[in-house]
Task: structure prediction
Amino acid sequence: MNAAIVGVGLIGGSFALSLKEHGIADRVVGVDNASDNRSRALELGLVDAMLSFEEAVEEADLIVLATPVDSIPMLAIKALNKISSQQTVMDMGSIKSELCEVIEQHPKRGRFVATHPMWGTEYSGPDAAERGAFTGRTVIVCNGGQSDPDALDSVIRIYEKIGMNILHMDAEEQDLHSAYVSHISHITSFALALTVLEKEREEDHIFDLASSGFESTVRLAKSSPKTWTPIFLRNKYNVLDVLREHIHQLQVFRRMIERDDAEGLTAAMEHANLIRKILK
Amino acid sequence: MNAAIVGVGLIGGSFALSLKEHGIADRVVGVDNASDNRSRALELGLVDAMLSFEEAVEEADLIVLATPVDSIPMLAIKALNKISSQQTVMDMGSIKSELCEVIEQHPKRGRFVATHPMWGTEYSGPDAAERGAFTGRTVIVCNGGQSDPDALDSVIRIYEKIGMNILHMDAEEQDLHSAYVSHISHITSFALALTVLEKEREEDHIFDLASSGFESTVRLAKSSPKTWTPIFLRNKYNVLDVLREHIHQLQVFRRMIERDDAEGLTAAMEHANLIRKILK
Result:
């Protein structure tokens, strides 16, 4: 099987490595509009060749879209316009409603499989690609009923070979849930970094104090704005919904601290401790 | 050297292990008001014996206070009341202003060394104690000028043997900085857990979606209210100060998303990316 990865960054690059690692693809070609990424992906051996979008779509059995989410719907249409009924197109983006809406009426809609593998790090670009990524994680497959059974099966089989757990969801449902478990974590992390940097202008010591707790909470603030600006804006209403709830929870904490409400604080934290069951 | 650890939980238990590991203490005894902790600390081999507070203070060269922060000032006074001028008392708590104020006029104030080692995990109790804890981290020594030089030196030498970097600070300064780099991370994590749990009442899927980003941001929400309620309340004004700034930053994010302000979001995240220099 020949695969083409459009966007050879953190996600696309790691997926290219997985396809080779698990013997899924014989040949993996890459497409990227940044010349730095093109040469780096080759140097790192993420792909066998870098081609133009048109060349890659022509030769690959599987076309994988792994670019920032604002570019995925148009690339999906362009790829579907060109492929035959033997080829499959899939994406790996973090949001799905707009994409599924845009491709809904396309005559070759059945050849598209919309997926969101729940894996990532705070790094970006080809150098951030990791061997062994995705394994043991969950992948959300969206609106699977709109994909041709053979296209859907082939993509699911790939994810299963990589060792991922498959979860089926509607596009709208997936966007809401991703806002809760991924997008909000990034916003709180960015905001926490800005809070500390704001203070650090006046003080000198913060540099020395990074404890493990701080590091893990603020780690995601190293993430790329190129990835995250389009996610927040394209998933706007879900993200705003979660953000409002999160700000509310922080205000409740603030009021309890203001009132020296030890019992209230303890009860809130005991409830928050239930997150253990989600993190297992 | 004989050491007594008062509070054989995450911090005290790990410090007991470090004292043995680095050949600093020949004998380490423990004190704990929870009978479960007493038996568990012995079973785990964290300490050589469990004694009463009075017995431990009598026999130890170094008395280490590692209990929740609301109990430290009184234990400090009680220990200072009993010791000779050959003994030293130190604490490992996360806040220092109240403690240093309470012991300030004590005739044996010089025998006390106030320290805050910047290490911890989201777990608590004797079972959470770890070998190799503290090494490579920073420890803040507060108001060192108020300690007798020999007491201060002996404590600093211990931390250096464990491989910690020593940072001297005023108690007030340390409490402000700890609010920024440790206390606020815990509040955002607790609030994030509550945000997600609130939603999860209505939905079923959140369980399956925990991605690595979510896990690292929300990890601290597993922390013990017994540890954190007194920290938030005893460091009230600093914590409120940081919390206000953090809520403000989140509100700025919210407004930018509402207005589709891609440029503003990108600029804010690029600025947040500067946190890299703090996390190195």
About this structure: Chain B is about 55% helix and 15% strand. Chain B touches chain A through 96 residues (CB under 8 Å). The two ends of chain B are 37 Å apart (CA to CA).
